[in-house]
Amino acid sequence: MTSFLEIPAIPGSLRQINRLTVLRLLRRFGPITKPALAEYSRISRPTISKLVDELEEQGLAECVGVAVPTPSGGKPGALYRFNAEGVRSAGIFLTVDAVRVALVNGNGRVSGSLERPLGQDRRPEPVINAIVETLQELLTSQQVSLAQLLGIGVGVPGLTSFATGVVHFAPHFPQWRDVPVRDLLKARLGSEVWVDNDCHVQALAERYFGAGQSCTDFVTVESGIGVSAAFYLQDTLYRGVGETAGEIGHMTIQEDGPLCECGNRGCWETLASTTWMVEQASGLALFSHSHDEMIEKLEPEVINTLAHTIFRAAQGGQADAIELVRQHAMHFGVGLAALINVLNPQRIIIWGDSINGGELFLETVRAVVQQRAMARPREMCSIIFSSFIQDVGVIGAASLVIDALFTHYQPTA
């Protein structure tokens, strides 16, 4: 059994630092012998032996055989690795219209998931109730207890303080102001809980299990009803001094552009979101009469439905749809070019509804970046779709627990 501090361990606890070092090495290089761990880490062999034995006892390391005998004829050492199955966490991902929960192991594998729509009442209390009920339903179906979870991670679409677990503002949940989501869930569930912005958790999913594993500097960008991002820079998730970093959808692209929900004009997401694309489709022969009526009341679920209709039509060769997707991608590419110039990342990973635009969307984005970004940072950066499809949100939320494990894990006394 393991527990967590509420803040990362302060460098200075040598035992804690050694424990984290061994845990990380087991995950990165395992299967590996104790002598090899000592060589990599420069920690003494007796200390390594004791730490590995403790981790094995706690279910975080496992022995998987013995090494090949050396020519010198010494006794082959036992091989150890990080025990991903010994880590089970719950990922909860809140979207504008649904709550999705999943059980995830230490390698990011989803063993069970459940999604439930949110009702019309999206005040904090009903939404928290929906989260708790959906998680409990999943645990029951999987025959897993809360006590068996290492922790619970939650991704929320809004300005969130990771340190306090408070959601300060959520644009699609108008009555959410300074909601202590972490403490509310912790009181209801009795488990350790971490809460962060939806884009931040997606970046953690890519860092631990996806296209960010080989990068020290990458950006993940969500394109859908809104546009937002997360910055993994110098091998660290950058949250900003107020933990609000990533709201790039509200950087001004066109000074006299469309009015945004934030009150500004010409925000990037007013031009690069799927909302813009759906609004531009009004009156075109892409939709049935019932769809045209839907456009008059652009609720999130309506935007998602109509955006997918446009993407499917474009894939099918419909000229108007192809042009809409191309324009959507061009606006999106303008913003990415700015990010590349400013941050010089190795990779930009796109996720969200716009990946349904397929190669048409991606190649148009790349062409715009080729035209607009400065040559040196552009040549260093690849632009790709996330390899995660349906589960990216819940894997990302569960990655909050994984991140805690590899940054400030300590055993229960």
TrEMBL record:
Residues 20-62 form the HTH marR-type domain. It comes from the Bacteria. This is Transcriptional regulator. CDD domains: ASKHA_ATPase_ROK_BsXylR-like. Belongs to the ROK (NagC/XylR) family. One of its GO terms (molecular function) is DNA-binding transcription factor activity. PANTHER family: BIFUNCTIONAL UDP-N-ACETYLGLUCOSAMINE 2-EPIMERASE_N-ACETYLMANNOSAMINE KINASE, ROK (REPRESSOR, ORF, KINASE) FAMILY. SUPFAM superfamilies: Actin-like ATPase domain (SSF53067), Winged helix' DNA-binding domain (SSF46785).
